[in-house]
Design a protein that fits this description.
The protein is an alpha+beta fold. It is built from one helix and eight strands. It has one domain.
């Protein structure tokens, strides 16, 4: 007698289906893990790129083209300062701010004679989205020249002339409904051109 009985056929089909479901589940897990790792790498790369630009600009801040103090405003979610970001010999007014879940950069190039900073000349770009900073992790913290690596930041409102170090915190999460969990990246930036201990 050759061939398979109905029971043998059903058992073979059920084993085959079980194996296919296991392989499908495994593939879905691998792809989910790959998306998770890719999301982590993307947020890390975004944070590094933003910190590199901001650090360069903040460290080089100096008095404006009109002679005003280098820092215009310093709050927990915004900072505005003067820095020659395009190396043309004239300081632009640069503002970084967190609005909603996006960090924006606004730049005002001084114009006119005498030079002035007009909001009409402001250009704004979005730097990074998916920012998930909470009230306990402000975008910006400010420290005076007594800061030695530990201790509290200056309380708001900050006396602008007391600032000697700025810490930027970015809590990034590509998709808050999926893994990985949000990661906070921080960078400390000393104000080279404003140091008083030289």
């Amino acid at each position: 007698m050759k061939g398979m009985t109905l029971v043998e056929t059903l058992i073979t089909i059920s084993i085959f289906i079980t194996i296919m479901v296991a392989v499908g589940t495994f593939e879905a897990s691998v792809f989910s893990y790959q998306r998770s790792v890719s999301g982590s790498l993307e947020t890390s790369t975004n944070a590094q790129a933003i910190f590199k630009t901001i650090m360069k600009e903040i460290r080089a801040m100096s008095p404006s083209a009109t002679g005003t103090y280098p820092i215009v405003t310093a709050a927990t979610n915004t900072i505005s300062f003067f820095s020659d970001i395009n190396n043309d010999g004239s300081q632009e007014q640069v503002t970084y701010s967190l609005m909603g879940n996006t960090v924006y950069k606004a730049v005002i190039v001084p114009t006119g004679s005498p030079l002035s900073y007009s909001l009409a000349n402001q250009s704004t770009t979005s730097l990074v989205s998916n920012v998930r900073n909470s009230s306990s992790t402000p975008l910006l913290e400010y420290f005076d020249n007594t800061y030695n690596g530990s201790g509290s930041s200056l309380t708001q409102p900050v006396t602008l002339s007391a600032i000697s170090l700025i810490r930027m915190n970015l809590t990034l999460d590509v998709d808050p409904n999926k893994s990985p969990t949000p990661v906070t990246y921080s960078a400390n930036m000393s104000l080279r051109n404003l140091k008083t201990n030289l």
